[in-house]
Every structure is written in structure tokens, then in C-alpha cells.
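User: As part of a screening pipeline, I want to sanity-check one entry by hand. Below is the sequence and the SMILES for pyridoxal-5'-phosphate. Please return the complex as C-alpha cells so I can compare it with the automated output.
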Amino acid sequence: MDDMSLTSTANETLVEHADAAATDAQQPDGQQPTGPQDAGPATGAQADGRSNAEVGADDASVVFHSWSKQGGLKPLPLAGGQGTTVWDHDGNRYLDFSTQLVFTNMGHQHPKIIAGITEQLGTLATVAPAHGNATRAEAARLILQRAPEGFEKVFFTNGGADANENAIRMARLVTGRTKVLSRYRSYHGNTGAAIVATGDWRRIPNEHATGHVHFFGPYLYRSEFWASTPEEECARALHHLERTVQAEGPESIAAILLESVPGTAGIMVPPPGYLSGVRAICDRYDIKLILDEVMAGFGRTGEWFAFDAHDVRPDLITFAKGVNSGYVPVGGVIISSDIAHAFDDRVFPGGLTYSGHPLAAASIVATQRAMAEEGAVENARRIGADVLGPALVELGAKHDVIGEVRGTGVFWALELVADPETREPLPTPTVAALKSDLISRGLLPFATDNRIHVVPPINVTDDEVARALAIYDEAFTAFRP
Ligand SMILES: Cc1ncc(COP(=O)(O)O)c(C=O)c1O
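Assistant: Here is the complex for your manual check:
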């Protein structure tokens, strides 16, 4: 059984590492790969006349990059974007099937979102969190409209990590308990408790918060439970979780924190009954259930929330990324009534200078309205069920290097293997070379560990999917391990 996601190769950091590695592998002279220069929206982005090499070197000389060795980084500089397309300073254009770090759910430069932010900028560019603000209230109302019955308030944060941080804090305060259980093969953010709740290698050098316990979740392709069917995997994963709860002492456990669909760790859609089974365990032991919808939420899975497909009601929901297509940094916690009211007569000991920043709030309002008006979530569901999903399954059947295709909506993973029989993961330098090749063919992929994640905007068109599929197919056809 492979355990690579628990060790030094697992994470979205490879996206950034691979940019450097891939350009090195492909272009020994250090030049950026050349993408197709087809016609498209006028860019105006090369107005300063600088090349990729100049902007990339300038950036790397003064910007300290995330999750990377800093020496030798050659970030691919992006100059502009429109919808599903981005372009660099050399005029190369790419289909953005990474949605950056899986957040441009409505694509780049969506006119309604830009207009919403611009209008707010002209009215009140900033305000302290203690003041009331109409745009902020509207953002909260639109988010609550998508939550299940019984959710009442939204606490805004700067992003996904601090959303999880504050959800954990709320669960600890209302239960009076400390421990938080979360999955191996998960990512919850890069702050104190969130990084220690994370179940990949990034936790290990940052393990300074206390009260965190990890367990294995369902992942049939590399089952920890010797299961051979989704039903077995589900039942055994739930048994393992309940035994972990009992062994840790239920009276010490404040919360179970789970990504509804683990994203960076491999887009592992839980088998039917798993999330509702976790809810039942939480109910048996008075534990709060926090579902992390930072990556999976707001249309990514073809549902407003990924858990909508799973007959489960959490106590706290965390969000960020897709809620506003990532145009302004923001995240938050959606709070159920009982937890919200627990702080009616008791101070909540938490806050952020930019909590509910009006530019972020305006971007949420505009994004939420655009998603509803344009049927973007329904589009993601249709694309996943009728277009992208079936075509990726076909791609998997055609190319031996694709060990498993899994996902839903516009949230798909191609798990790459050196050997389909043993399922030995494809080594990361080979994945980086494949990533580089995809870029040179005009597609910006999301590559992590031994996987390519196919994660276009939720409003992607059939035509863009067809063009992307042709590029994936060409790259896999040309691929030599
Ligand atoms: C599921 C999940 N939770 C939390 C986070 C952290 O969000 P942020 O980077 O905005 O702090 C991420 C980021 O990728 C994520 O995918």
C-alpha cells in the first residue's frame, strides 16, 4: 500500500515546484515553454513590453514563494486572463484547467464580479469589522441561503485556513473539549491549528499546535482497510473512526473536521453513507462536525456545497476560494443556530482586522448572484455527468499511465501510475515533465503528487472541455515514462 501522500511529495506545492521543474525539464536553456498563440481576446497585457524571462526573474528575485525551495525558482508569469483563458508576457495563451489553486470558479475577469468590486470601491473601500455594513450583510445572507436549514450566521475571515482555525475554536468553546480529529490525506490550511489538522507532509515541520489526532478515511484505490468494494471501504472506515474516537476518549473530542470531498489530497469522493455515518458517530458522542468546503464548495462538485449530495448536516461549514472566485482574499465559517446563540451572552474570543472587508463582501455578492443567474452550478453538474466525466473515463481506458479516474462536477483527478497492476505511483519528476508538456501544448494543469487534477471553472463551456481533452489526449499519447 502506498503512503506517499503522508510523506514528502504530497501537496499542491508541486504545482509551484513543477513550474520550475517542468520548465527545466522541457527547456534546458531556461526559457519558458511556448504555448499556442491563437487568436482570442485582446490582451493589452504585454503593454510594458517585458518578456516572461524578465518578469519571472524579477519576481523570483524579490518574492518569497509558498512551499518551495527558493533557489532556482522560475515561476511562469501570467499577464492577464479572460474566462477560462490566461496568457503570459510572451503572448502564449493557456486554457486554465487549474483554476489557479482551484478557486477561479467563475473564470477570470468575470464582468459582473469586476463591476461589483469596482462599485464598492467607489462607495466605501474599507470599514472596520465592528461597524455594520450593508454589503457584508448581503454577502452573509446569500451564503446562508445555500446552507441547510438551521444555519444562522457567517463569521468572515481572510481565507480558508483561518476559517478552519475559527471553526475549531468555536467547537472547542461550545463543547469545552480540546481534541480535533481529522483525516490523513487532507489539507486544511497553513496556520496554527489548521496546518496541524492537515493530513499531509506539511503538518510535520509545523506541528506546534496540540490536541490533534488523525485517522484514515475512505480511499478505495489505495484502501487502508483491505476493502474491495465501496460498501466495505465505507463500513470499515467508519468502524476505524469510531474505534479511534473511543480510544481517544469521546469526552475529550470537540470536533471531527473533514473536507466533504478531500481536494488537494486526491479528490476522493466519499462512498455513499460515509459522511452520514460520520454524522451518526458525532451524534453518539456529542462531537461537532465541521465540514471544510473551502475547495469543494460553491459549485465545484456540481452542488452548491459538496455535502449536499451526501445526506449530512454539519454543525459548522468553512468556505473560501470559489465563494468569490478568489478575486479578493476571503473565507469564513457558516455557523449553525445553536453554536451562534452560544455566544449571545458570552464573548467570542476571536476577530480579524479585515473580517467582512467590503471589497471581499462585494465580490461575494456579485459572484453568488452571477452563479445563480447564469446557472453555473447546474452547468458544472451537467459538464461532469455528460461531458467531462465520461470523456476522462475514456481517456483513462486508453492510456495505461492513468490508474484511476475519479471525481464529480468539475472536480476530477487522474491518478497516474508507473504500473497499472501494482499501482506504483508515477514519480513526481515524471509528473512534472508531463505538466510541462501540457503547458507547452497550451493547457495550464493542476499537478500534485502522482496526479493531474482536472479542475476548470464551473462555467466552462463544452467547447473548452473538448479543446482541453484533445490536449490531455495528445500529451498522454506522446508520454514516454
Ligand atoms: C480544503 C481546504 N481547506 C483550507 C484551505 C486553506 O485555504 P487558504 O489557503 O485560503 O488559507 C485550502 C487551500 O487550498 C483547502 O483546499
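Points to compare against the pipeline: The CA atoms of residues 230 and 271 lie 6 Å apart. Residues 111-373 form a domain with the Aspartate Aminotransferase; domain 2 fold (CATH 3.40.640.10).
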